[in-house]
Description:
Layout: H1 4-50, E1 52-57, E2 65-70, H2 74-79, E3 83-84, E4 98-100, E5 105-109, E6 115-118, E7 123-125, E8 130-136, E9 141-144, E10 146-156, E11 161-172
Parallel strand pairs: 5-11
Antiparallel strand pairs: 1-2, 1-3, 4-7, 6-9, 8-10, 10-11
Bound molecules: calcium ion.
Calcium ion (CA) binds next to loops.
Amino acid sequence: MLTHNTKKNNIKFFYSYSSQVGELQMKRKMISVLLALVMLTLATGVFAQQEKVTICHKPGTEAEETLSVATPALKAHLAHGDSEGECSFTETDTEPPTVTVPADITQGITAGETNVIIYYDASASDNVGVISFSCTPPSGSSFPLGTTSVICTASDAALNSTTASFNVTIVESS
Ligand SMILES: [Ca+2]
């Protein structure tokens, strides 16, 4: 025999159970709708991708860039000079080399002598690579009395160049 309380609990349980079932069904429906949306998005994406082609827009100019265009538009692009496939441009190196020269050198010379051999350290570096580096007069040269300017020049493959200089002064020792 059911007591009043037991009946009440059973009713409570029934409502709670049916609402759980309802919630579950709703969740299932929502998941189905979401899955359908995801598949539709993927299908559209794949379809759109198949319909596009990569071109190089305005090759050989400043505005050169790789673009993805719709296949039907390809003919028109090729007609105005674009090419199919990615652009093959290489970025231009605009950074000049860095040249490091020593501070000015002053060297004494024995009375009666007219010149002295001077060695110095000078170097160059570049973001891409130094292809030529030289100093005039070179290290190990014979410097005469007085002041001589040593000029060092470095260049990279993009023909950026940097020049740095320092003085070598030869004085007669007292
Ligand atoms: Ca450079």
